[in-house]
Specification:
The protein is mostly helical. Helix content is 72%, strand content 2%. It has one domain. It is built from eleven helices and two strands. A two-stranded antiparallel ribbon has the order 1-2. A hairpin with a 2-residue loop joins strand 1 and strand 2. Helix 2 crosses helix 6. The longest helix has 31 residues. This is Transport permease protein. It is a multi-pass membrane protein.
C-alpha cells in the first residue's frame, strides 16, 4: 500500500528523463558509433594528421617574421580539424541517417528532438578536443610549435576553438539539408571544405593570396578561426604580417559569434527529419 509520503517519490521514479539527460546518453552512443565507423574515424582524425606529415615533409621555408611555413600551416590545420569534426562530419553523417530512415524513427519515439542535437554536439566537442590534442602533439614534437605560455593565450585558444566548433556544428547541421541522399552528401560537402581551406590561410600564407580571394574567405568562419589560432601559437610580432597588422581578436569574436547565431537560424529554418518526397 502506497502512503501519501511515498507518492512524490513514486511520481519522481516514474518521471521520464529530461532532454539533457537523454542527449548526454545519445552523445555517448554517437561517440561509440563514430569510433566504430572507420570512414568517419579515418577522415576526421587521421586525414588531417596525414596532410600535416605530407606538407611538413614536402614544403619548407619561412612564412615571415621568423615563423617557418610548417608552423604557420599547422595552426591552420588545427582549425581545419575543427571544421572537419563539426561541419564536414555532420553534413555527411546526418543525410546518411536521414536516407536510412534513422531520423524518421527517432521522431516517432518519445525522445525530445533536442536530445538528438545535444548528442551530436557532445560527439563533436569530444572529437574536436581529441583532434586538437593529436595535431598539437604532432606539431610540438616534429615542427617546433610552442604551446601557449600565458593564461591569456590559453583562454584565447579556448574561446576561439569553442566559438569555431559551435559555428561549424550549426552550419554542418543546416548544410545537411541540401543533400537529397546520403550518397550525395560527401560530394556536396568535401569540395566546399577544401575550397575554404585553400582560401582561408591553411595551405598558403593568407596575405600571399589575391585580394579578391581574401575578401571571399573573410565572409566565412574558417579564416577567422585560423587567424585567432595564429595569435595563440605564433609570436606576437607576427601580427604585423597580418592584413590589418594585428590579430583583430575582437573582430574574430564578433564574426564567429555572428556565424553561431546565423547557423542556429539556418538550422531552425532548414533542418528536415525526413526526405522531401
Amino acid at each position: 500500500m502506497t502512503t501519501v509520503a511515498d507518492r512524490p517519490a513514486a511520481r519522481s521514479a516514474g518521471r521520464r528523463p529530461g532532454a539533457l539527460t537523454i542527449g548526454l546518453s545519445r552523445g555517448a552512443l554517437e561517440l561509440k558509433q563514430f569510433v566504430r565507423t572507420r570512414a568517419y574515424l579515418v577522415f576526421t582524425l587521421l586525414f588531417p594528421v596525414l596532410i600535416v606529415l605530407i606538407f611538413g615533409a614536402a614544403f619548407h621555408g619561412s612564412a615571415g617574421g621568423g615563423v617557418s611555413y610548417t608552423q604557420y600551416f599547422v595552426t591552420g590545420m588545427i582549425a581545419s580539424g575543427l571544421l572537419a569534426t563539426g561541419f564536414q562530419n555532420l553534413a555527411i553523417q546526418i543525410p546518411i541517417e536521414r536516407d536510412r530512415g534513422v531520423l524518421k524513427r527517432l521522431v516517432g519515439t518519445p525522445m525530445p528532438r533536442s536530445a538528438y542535437f545535444i548528442g551530436k554536439i557532445v560527439m563533436v566537442l569530444v572529437m574536436s578536443v581529441v583532434s586538437t590534442v593529436i595535431l598539437l602533439a604532432l606539431a610540438v614534437a616534429l615542427y617546433g610549435l610552442r604551446l601557449p605560455d600565458t593564461g591569456t593565450k590559453w583562454f584565447t585558444l579556448v574561446w576561439v576553438g569553442l566559438l569555431g566548433v559551435i559555428a561549424c556544428t550549426l552550419l554542418g547541421i543546416a548544410y545537411s539539408s541540401l543533400a537529397r541522399t546520403g550518397r550525395a552528401a560527401p560530394s556536396m560537402t568535401t569540395p566546399v571544405a577544401l575550397v575554404l581551406q585553400f582560401i582561408s590561410g591553411v595551405f598558403f600564407v593568407y596575405t600571399s593570396l589575391p585580394g579578391w580571394m581574401q575578401q571571399i574567405a573573410a565572409l566565412f568562419p574558417l579564416k577567422w578561426m585560423t587567424q585567432g589560432l595564429r595569435s595563440v601559437f605564433l609570436p606576437d610580432a607576427y601580427a604585423q604580417h597580418e592584413v590589418a597588422h594585428s590579430w583583430e581578436l575582437g573582430k574574430v569574436a564578433v564574426v564567429l559569434g555572428a556565424w553561431c547565431v546565423a547557423g542556429l537560424i539556418l538550422c531552425l529554418l532548414t533542418f528536415r527529419w525526413t526526405e522531401k518526397d
